[in-house]
């Protein structure tokens, strides 16, 4: 009962370690009692860095002048450390001691995951200026280092309070009549933009839910 009533803290992390990730955001929705030590572990898992190889600084306007890294080894809760429930708590992920964060090595059995990851998102049309990397975040590992569950099912990463949408998507995917009807649908690129086509994007998502080797996408 106390866990259900516990306030949640939304953390939005900006990876400022290189130009490719500076415009991207990673979100975590954590219980207010989460220790700072656990915050670092969750961030490391989310972005695919080795825990202890990066620092976290305040990114909120109120704390913008504080350039002291958050204490990674503290047992203090994020609530006691100044994080505010019900608000967006912005953090900057930075180099530690002038060194780039160490990227977590994936297991050898996940060699095909890179190709699978590149399939996510709309593909550019011929003649377009963009490339696939415009749509795919190379820094987000989400759960790339975690292998698929023994059940054979693949989850969806919560993009900050999207559990209701994830539940709906999984329900639709687990409805064979709907899933098969969607697979039979054909996209007409000349008539619609793939980026804005809901059935096209849903079709791609279902393919990943069915074929990905990861625990969550």
From TrEMBL:
Record InterPro entries: Papain-like_cys_pep_sf (IPR038765), Peptidase_C19 (IPR050164), Peptidase_C19_UCH (IPR001394), USP (IPR028889), USP_CS (IPR018200)
Gene name as annotated: Usp47
GO molecular function, one term: cysteine-type deubiquitinase activity
Keywords per UniProt: Hydrolase
A Gene Ontology cellular-component term: nucleus
Domain USP: 154-217
Transmembrane recorded as keyword: no
One record GO biological process: protein deubiquitination
Name of the featured protein: UBP47 hydrolase
């Amino acid at each position: 009962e106390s866990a259900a009533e516990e306030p949640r803290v939304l953390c939005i992390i900006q990876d400022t370690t290189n130009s490719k990730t500076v415009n991207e955001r990673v979100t975590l929705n954590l219980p207010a009692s989460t220790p700072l030590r656990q915050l670092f572990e969750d961030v490391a898992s989310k972005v695919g860095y080795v825990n202890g190889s990066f620092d976290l600084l305040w990114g909120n306007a109120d704390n913008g002048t504080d350039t002291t890294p958050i204490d990674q080894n503290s047992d203090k809760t994020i609530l006691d450390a100044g994080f505010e429930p019900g608000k967006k708590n912005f953090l900057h992920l930075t180099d530690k001691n002038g060194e780039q964060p160490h990227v977590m090595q994936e297991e050898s059995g996940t060699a095909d995951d890179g190709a699978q990851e590149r399939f996510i998102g709309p593909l550019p049309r011929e003649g377009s200026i963009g490339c696939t990397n415009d749509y795919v975040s190379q820094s987000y590992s989400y759960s790339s280092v975690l292998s698929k569950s023994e059940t054979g099912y693949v989850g969806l990463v919560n993009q900050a309070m999207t559990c209701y949408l994830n539940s709906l998507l999984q329900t639709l995917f687990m409805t064979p009549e709907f899933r098969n009807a969607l697979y039979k649908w054909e996209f007409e690129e000349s008539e619609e933009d793939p980026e804005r086509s809901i059935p096209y994007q849903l079709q791609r998502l279902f393919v990943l839910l069915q074929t990905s080797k990861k625990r969550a996408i």
